[in-house]
Amino acid sequence: MKKIFEYTKGMLPVSTHYCPGCTHGIAHRLVMEVLEERGLLGESIGVAPIGCSILSHNYMNVDMCESAHGRAPAVASGIRRAMPDKIVFTYQGDGDLASIGAGEIVHAAHRGEKFTTIFVNNAIYGMTGGQMAPTTLIGQKSTTGIEGRKKEISGMPLRVAEMLATIDGAVFVERVALNTPANIRKAKKAIDKAFAVQEKRLGFSFVEVLSTCPTNWGLNPVESLKWLGKNMIPYYPLGNLRSPEEVE
C-alpha cells in the first residue's frame, strides 16, 4: 500500500501544551518539514523567547535556545556570527517581536543578519492572558482593552512585514496565513524560500504567519479560522513584499 503520510523527523512525538485550535502546531510543523526536506535538521539552531512559543523546544527536533522577552534576534545574531556555518532561526509571537522586541528585530534586519525569523501574529498576547498587542485590530477586545482597540488611544495596528520590507538588509519578507489548506501550502513555500535565502547567505529573511488564538479571542477553533480570514487578512494582506532574484 502506498504511504501517503509520514510524520516529519523534525517534530518530536509528544503531546502539545497549546490550546485546542491553536495554529502554533501547524507553524512548528511547517518549519520542521522545510528543515528536514532541506537536510538541515542537524545543522539548525532555533531561538524562542517568552510567549506561547517558549516550550517549542519540546516539539522541534533541533538544538534550541531560549532568550529573554523580545531578545531572540540579539541571541540569534550572536549564534549566527559565532557559528556562521549553522542555520539559525527565531520563532516569535507578536506580543514579543512587535512590542518589547521591536527595536531588536528592526536593527537585526538593518544589519542584514543572516538568520530567519518566523513571526507568528495572532493579534493578541497569548500566554500572559489576552492583553492588547501592537497587532491587535481596531475594535478587537482584549483584557486590557475591554471596549476594543481605539485608534485615538492606541494608534493603528502595526504592520511589521511592511515596516521591515523598507529595510535593505531584509532581503526576503512575506506574509502568509494558516486558515485554509491552500494558505498553509503557500506558507510552507514562503518558509522554504526564507531558509533558501539564509543558505545562500543573502541577508535577513522574515516570514509573518497569521495565526489563531481561540482561547483569547473567545471563539471556537472553526470560528477562529473564519475570523482570521474575515478580519486579519484584509488588514494584513498576504503576499511577498520583498524577495531576491536568487530564490525566485
Q: Can you give a write-up of this model?
A:
The protein is of the alpha/beta class and 248 residues long. It has one domain: Rossmann fold, CATH 3.40.50. Helices cover 36% and strands 17% of the residues. It is built from 9 helices and 7 strands. It has a 7-stranded mixed β-sheet, sandwiched between helices. Helix 7 links the parallel strand 5 and strand 6. Helix 1 crosses helix 7 and helix 3 packs across helix 4. It is globular and about 50 Å long.
> Given the helix and strand composition, which structural class is it?
alpha/beta
**Helix-strand pattern, N to C?**
HEEHEHHEHHEHEHHE
CATH top level? Alpha Beta
Strand content: 15-25%
Kindly, what is the distance between the CA atoms of the first and last residues, rounded to a whole number of angstroms?
36 Å
- Biggest β-sheet: strands ordered side by side in the sheet: 2-1-3-4-6-5-7
Which blocks of ≥5 consecutive residues have pLDDT under 50? none
The average pLDDT value, as a whole number, equals 95
Name the helicity range.
25-40%
Tally the beta strands: 7
Radius of gyration: 17 Å
Largest sheet descriptor: 7 strands, mixed
For the record, what is the CATH homologous superfamily label?
A: Thiamin diphosphate (ThDP)-binding fold, Pyr/PP domains
Question: Tags for this entry?
Answer:
single chain, 248 residues, alpha/beta, Rossmann fold, seven-stranded mixed β-sheet, 9 helices, 36% helix, 17% strand
In a nutshell, what does this entry contain?
It is built from nine helices and seven strands; from the N terminus they run αββαβααβααβαβααβ.
